Amino acid sequence: MTKICKSCKENIHIDASRCPNCQSFQSFLRSPNMAGPLMLFFLLPFLWWSSKTLPTNRIQFEENKELINVRTLSKDTIQGRDRSLLNILVEVDNKTSQKWTDATFEIAYLSSTGELLNLEKRKDYNFIIAPNTNGKSSLKVPLYPEYANAQIEVKLIDLRQPWN
């Protein structure tokens, strides 16, 4: 038994998935050229769905920013391997009903007139704070000789919610 090839119109075996004359695939879905589009057909809806269901951590922190306060407890000089470091102990007061982790701090070196001299960012991946509690973090930043008389200001710029 035979059938007619969809491309070259020659007679081919009825079970043939590919024409022996022109090498074209007889079934649209069996063509290797369709693997990419078929994968996208199933992958794009999943990606769209997952982007809608994942928590948007940045927005949640921004919404709760006023309920989370940072206070500097102490500043000590410690000797690192190749330079002196400033160890800043901060306390974060969480007045929200949310658990937070992965704190990102911004440390500003300010002159006596309030002019910004330098800005450092530190991420504490081990930081976890429970709802309605306080948590402490130790931030180590370089102690620059040119900023010896600078005022140090610490701000909390980001927190993440753990994947529960």
In short:
This protein is an alpha+beta fold. The protein folds into two domains: 2-54, no CATH class; 59-160, Lipoprotein YajI-like (Immunoglobulin-like). Helices cover 16% and strands 45% of the residues.
Notes on the structure:
By secondary structure, the protein is α+β, with helices and mostly antiparallel strands. The chain has 2 domains: 2-54, no CATH class; 59-160, Lipoprotein YajI-like (Immunoglobulin-like), CATH 2.60.40.1620. It has helices at residues 35-53, 57-64; strands spanning 2-4, 11-13, 68-79, 84-94, 100-110, 116-129, 134-142, 151-160. The longest helix has 19 residues, at 35-53. The protein is elongated. The mean pLDDT is 86.
SSE order: EEHHEEEEEE
Identify the overall geometry. elongated
The overall strand count is 8
Strand content: 35-45%
Q: Count the helices. How many? A: 2
Helix content: 10-25%
CATH superfamily of the largest domain: Lipoprotein YajI-like
Q: Which architecture of the largest domain would the CATH scheme give at its second level? A: Sandwich
What distance separates the N and C termini? 61 Å
Question: Which CATH first-tier class of the largest domain would you pick?
Answer: Mainly Beta
Strand order of the largest sheet: 3-4-7
SS content category: alpha+beta
Largest sheet properties? 3 strands, antiparallel
Tally of separate domains? 2
List unreliable stretches of 5+ residues: none
The overall pLDDT, averaged over residues, is 86
CATH topology of the largest domain, what is it called? Immunoglobulin-like
Rg, Å, rounded: 31 Å
